[in-house]
Design brief:
Elements (H helix, E strand, L loop, with lengths): L9 H29 L1 H26 L4 H49 L6 H14 L1 H34 L4 H8 L5 H39 L5 H11 L5 H18 L1 H26 L8 H41 L3
Helix pairs in contact: 1-2, 2-3, 2-5, 2-7, 3-5, 3-8, 3-9, 6-7, 7-8, 7-10, 7-11, 8-9, 9-10
């Protein structure tokens, strides 16, 4: 009896094999995503801890080289993180409290101007406010339940943050054992390849986190100085918003820059808004053509279109947190693929 595979041409068999592999990989990836979403309370702290370990690894290694015990070095690193993050949060919150009213008032004025020029006939902000009050009256119960769910979300977020900090301590302390543990779990004959893939993925994430932090700091400083020169209200708060938004490539810079331009438009007029737009665009050009190639030259470079698709996919899976985690996870995946191409490309 003739084998049915010989009835098909070789190209058709190859296409069928690749289709089967792609469908199998897509199915495994989908199941993994669903499992991560279902166990997000445990998965998210692990991912955040890995990002924190990648960012804080150099500091911990310097302390260890200075003959500080690994546990003490890890504890000092975590304390430094809490101090820095707490100080940064205090500065950001204080800046937003001091300038938040100005920013909100400026945005309200901008919305009023837009409503006057482009609003529907017979519609005013007073009508919108009245309708909003009616909606709040009708759906007060829904709002109360939303507040309750919001409180639970805050509690869950605090618990995940504490767990992530503890995991950072253990990851830093036991980082010297990671390679040995990975090799012991690897199937026979694959230990070297698996270790090389893990190292390349972690190096990609480490470079991304350090480079992004440095670039975010430079962007925030430049835009804050520009807004201060233009006498835009809330420059410190807008600069803090730029720093946080820089961790979401392209989209975060666009949104934070748009807020700065709107505030300048509402408070300082059209000409100052154009100058603010010029400052934002100049900083973005500096980032894209100087800082990114120079600082992140050792990380995995991804096309902007790939970054945008990755951010969109992360947002669809896990919202803002997915947008923050999507790019470093993709960078790690690209690092693994690059290592596999180096090892098996010739064969």
């Amino acid at each position: 009896m003739q084998d049915f595979r010989t009835l098909l041409p070789e190209p058709v068999r190859r296409v069928g094999a690749w289709c089967a592999v792609i469908l199998l990989a897509a199915g495994v990836f989908y199941v993994a995503i669903r499992l991560c979403v279902a166990f997000r309370t445990a998965v998210v702290p692990v991912l955040l801890a890995l990002l924190g370990t990648a960012l804080l690894g150099p500091l911990h290694r310097r302390l260890v080289r200075a003959r500080v015990h690994r546990s003490v070095a890890a504890a000092l690193t975590c304390v430094a993180v809490v101090a820095v993050v707490g100080g940064a949060v205090y500065v950001v919150v204080a800046a937003l409290i001091d300038s938040g009213d100005q920013i909100v008032a400026s945005l309200r004025d901008a919305g009023k101007d837009l409503a006057e020029h482009f609003g529907a006939a017979g519609t005013s902000l007073d009508d919108l406010a009245a309708n909003s009050r009616d909606l709040l009256t009708k759906f007060g119960g829904t709002a109360a339940s939303g507040v309750i769910s919001g409180v639970s979300v805050v509690g869950e977020t605090i618990a995940m943050a504490v767990l992530a900090l503890l995991l950072v301590f253990f990851f830093l302390r036991d980082s010297d054992r990671a390679a040995g543990t990975l090799r012991s779990l690897a199937p026979p004959g694959t230990a070297d390849t698996l270790e090389a893939m893990a190292r390349r993925a972690f190096e990609a994430v480490e470079g991304f986190m350090r480079g992004t932090t440095f670039i975010a700091f430079i962007d925030a400083i430049c835009i804050t100085v520009g807004l201060l020169i233009l006498d835009v209200p809330g420059a410190a708060g807008l600069g803090a918003l730029v720093f946080v938004g820089a961790y979401i490539p392209y989209l975060g810079a666009f949104l934070s820059g748009a807020v700065a331009v709107l505030v300048a438009l509402a408070d300082r007029g059209f000409v100052i808004a154009l100058w603010a737009l010029g400052v934002v665009l100049a900083v973005q050009v500096l980032e894209g053509h100087v800082l990114q190639p120079m600082i992140q030259s050792r990380t995995v470079q991804m096309h902007p279109a790939m970054v945008m698709v990755t951010i969109t996919a992360g947002a669809s899976v896990a919202g803002i947190l997915g947008m923050l985690l999507a790019v470093p996870i993709t960078a790690a995946a690209f690092g693994v693929i690059q290592e596999l191409r180096v090892r098996y490309g010739t064969s």
